[in-house]
Amino acid sequence: MKDAYVHGYDLRENIRLQDQASTLVDLLHSDTLYPGGSRVLEAGCGVGAQTVTLAANSPDAIFTSIDISEESVNAARRAAEAAGISNVDFRQGDIFHLPFGPGSFDHIFLCFVLEHLPRPVEALEILKGYLKGGGTITVIEGDHGSAYFYPDSEFARRAIDCQVELQRRSGGNANIGRELYPLLKSAGYEDIRVSPRMVYVDSSRPGLVEGFTKKTFTAMIEGVRETALAAGITDQGAFDRGIRDLYRTAEAEGVFCYTFFKAVAVKA
Amino acid sequence: MKDAYVHGYDLRENIRLQDQASTLVDLLHSDTLYPGGSRVLEAGCGVGAQTVTLAANSPDAIFTSIDISEESVNAARRAAEAAGISNVDFRQGDIFHLPFGPGSFDHIFLCFVLEHLPRPVEALEILKGYLKGGGTITVIEGDHGSAYFYPDSEFARRAIDCQVELQRRSGGNANIGRELYPLLKSAGYEDIRVSPRMVYVDSSRPGLVEGFTKKTFTAMIEGVRETALAAGITDQGAFDRGIRDLYRTAEAEGVFCYTFFKAVAVKA
């Protein structure tokens, strides 16, 4: 199931890299600004796709960005250097076993991480231990069940469900966005505020048609083709028709909708 | 199928009438303001649930509000009088056969109307004839396929699908919100701008839990129970479990999401 996990990362990478990245990055990041001198933990930085924006938006905050993959952390470090970012300390580490003392951070930031974890509430509880009282946690997740489109297609929905099922089998949850409120509540956070960030794409927005509908979302679903066929959860004809139908939503008459969820909560 | 049609109206009425009505009304109406002296046609005013807000927000515009039902028009007239609204001329009329000359109006407004029409593009084309060149049309519609929730439930989704199927059988389309862009394009409008208006409800927003999740959306689905059973498109056990599961999304750990679509387009 490594493939499904890797493809989970595609969403994160592509959002940063596509033509309309600035629109999508703004949609997710524009209201995350940390005060100068504050210590911020980015848990699960991957190859640094979010780190670069995060650290650039709060140039006087001091970031520690960790990821379980040494390889990803090295890539993230290089990406930050290339972007002239100097306020991030990158370290390899496992969210469930981090080498920090209680209350080490003023704020914590996670983006596209909980979706991959079998025990997201436990992760949020553990992270709470590293937060100072009054500190905030910010969580951003997608939700594949929020995807709908015109023309509608049962095949397209089933192709998306393949990605959801593969992610489930690897212990994750591709529909976790809608759950941020109950997850944070279960983990004991307070003053939880969730705001959905909907991406609406029609042909009057060609950058998003190309950058989001086609190259990010549909490409991500297309990317699980071999794994889904090997797992026997779809057949070639149905899956390929689903992908064709997803590309149809990027044509002149098509519409594509997807929603990211962003939550901010406080440690009492 | 009269029932399904009537229940289609429930959404419209309830949005106006529930506790959190002001939030929802703002969500849909706040950016619709017509200049003083402009002539505006509200096509399909029903019992005036939107008319009162529409006319109050643009007190110096001159409204003509029509509905195919004489009874509804009379109720709308009384509602406007009760609200102290005096800038609306109410008339019975069929969108497909209105007694106005070409270019009679500066602007047209429709809310929760296209979802009931078997030929929405034709309606939009006919309405375009009543618009002056450079005039705008504003269209607001819901989309039941935009509803998703936590805890997720196959039964809840199937109960919602009953309403969608009944509305389809009566010639309408409960998932029309996502289609506003292609519909307006097909009808020959230009400069089409669609903006989704997502309603996100968790237990930190008790007014919306009560006013939207329970008393508006779930009550509307619950309202098609007898019609759906009589039509044989569900069975009692499955439907009732779906309704119970929808109410569960209104409990402390629950989340409910729904999106309205608002489009503004121009007659060239």
List the helices and strands and how they pair.
2 copies of one chain form a homodimer.
Chain A lengths: L1 H16 L3 H9 L9 E5 L7 H7 L4 E6 L2 H13 L5 E5 L12 E7 L8 H11 E11 L6 E3 L3 H16 L10 H7 L3 E13 L3 H17 L2 H6 L5 H13 L6 E12 L2
Parallel strand pairs in A: 1-2, 1-4, 2-3, 4-5
Antiparallel strand pairs in A: 5-8, 6-8, 7-8
Structure description:
The structure is a homodimer of 268-residue chains. Chain A has 268 residues and is α/β, with parallel strands linked by helices. The first copy, chain A, is built from ten helices and eight strands. Chain A has helices spanning 2-17, 21-29, 51-57, 70-82, 120-130, 154-169, 180-186, 206-222, 225-230, 236-248, and strands at residues 39-43, 62-67, 88-92, 105-111, 131-141, 148-150, 190-202, 255-266. In chain A, strands 1, 2, 3, 4, 5, 6, 7 and 8 form an eight-stranded mixed β-sheet that branches. In chain A, helix 1 packs across helix 2 (21-29) and helix 8 (206-222) packs antiparallel against helix 10. Mean pLDDT of chain A is 92; it is low at 1-9 and 12-20. Chains A and B meet through strand 6, helix 7, strand 7 and strand 8 of A and strand 6, helix 7, strand 7 and strand 8 of B.
Which characteristics define this entry?
homodimer, 268 residues, alpha/beta
Offer a quick outline of the entry.
Chain A has 268 residues and is an alpha/beta fold. The first copy, chain A, has helices at residues 2-17, 21-29, 51-57, 70-82, 120-130, 154-169, 180-186, 206-222, 225-230, 236-248, and strands at residues 39-43, 62-67, 88-92, 105-111, 131-141, 148-150, 190-202, 255-266.
